[in-house]
Amino acid sequence: MIDKFSRKxxxxxxxxxxxCNLRCVYCMPEQGIIHKQxxxxxxxxxxxxIVKAAAALGVEKVRITGGEPLVRKDLPLLIRKLRxxxxxxxxxxxxxxxxxxxxxxxxxxxxxxxxxxxLDSLNPERFREITRGGSLEAALKGIDAALEAxxxxxxxxxxxxxxxxxxxxxxxxxxxxxxxxxxxxxxxMPTGVNHFSYDKSFFSAQTAKAICGGLxxxxxxxxxxxxxxxxxxxxxxxxxxxxxxxxxRPFCGSCNKLRLTSDGRLRNCLHSAKTIDLxxxxxxxxxxxxxxxxxxxxxxxxxxxxxxxxxxxxxGDFxxxxxxAEAENFSMCQIGG
Length: 337
Ligand code: SAM
Ligand code: SF4
Prior knowledge:
Blueprint: E1 11-15, H1 44-56, E2 61-65, H2 75-82, E3 90-95, H3 100-110, E4 114-118, H4 124-131, H5 136-148, E5 155-160, H6 169-178, E6 182-187, H7 195-201, H8 205-213, E7 218-220, E8 230-234, E9 240-244, E10 257-260, E11 265-267, E12 275-277, H9 279-283, H10 287-300, H11 324-328
Parallel strand pairs: 1-2, 1-10, 2-3, 3-4, 4-5, 5-6, 6-9
Antiparallel strand pairs: 7-8, 8-9, 10-11, 11-12
Helix pairs in contact: 1-2, 1-10, 2-3, 3-5
Bound molecules: S-adenosylmethionine and iron/sulfur cluster.
């Protein structure tokens, strides 16, 4: 599907839960969020039907996300089911890695292609602080288990936070020296729940790139540039580095994504609250036809660009939220990043 700004839309992120075993300071409020009712969460069968309809329209890549996707029971069953969909070329997962050692081989066996692990500090104390209680050891064990299971094209995603982990850019870059990993630095994005810390914590991925340049020549790998990241390799290193700059170098012009929330709402921009309810279509007559029409509508309405330069809480297009309070409660864990 090509949208009206000539972007090919072929990537669907699927949030399977709004629950999480961590409380990352930039993502969730300390007290957590108000969760959706279990009855509102899509079943695996419903997710399958929606992904199948999206694949029939040209979606080739699906990323399973959350909250934390591995808190959803029996996730490998979903992967196995999605694997049977014609036209779907790639199934990936984004996880905080804490439960990954228990599931890595079952996920690989079920047909998962790739994993991204979110890891914002290599220091156990800091990791605990940033995740409000998480174990770095468990996340690292998860990474090892994924590599052992053969999920080798693994990416590590670190959200950059000034005066918190920005001094770890070099340590992260060194992870790629001997191992064929990709470490990606992601700019902190404002949401409803984090606007208090956003302005003082933003750290540009372009600055991280300059810091990495101090370790050796940064060789651009244009052939790897399929997503929002600019990819480089430090000369002599085995792995690669990615720099994702939604704020300092927005990539909306090449955005190929749709997002499905865990309660069945299709979102055509991470930073817009406008959603289309797909769940209703699953209960009516001709669900395939109705789903196809609604997905096409979401693509048709996909905005040209986000609006994150606006000041204050509720940056982006929040006009569709029911109330200001709801806009202020907007958290990335409800959508899956
Ligand atoms: N729990 C899983 C994880 O942490 O990987 C999946 C869901 S999480 C919402 C997906 C991604 O969004 C993570 O890489 C996380 O670091 C990122 N994220 C969350 N809040 C963010 C923010 N305000 N700015 C930038 N990235 C954010
Ligand atoms: Fe949970 Fe992921 Fe959000 Fe951290 S970033 S609180 S792990 S959903």
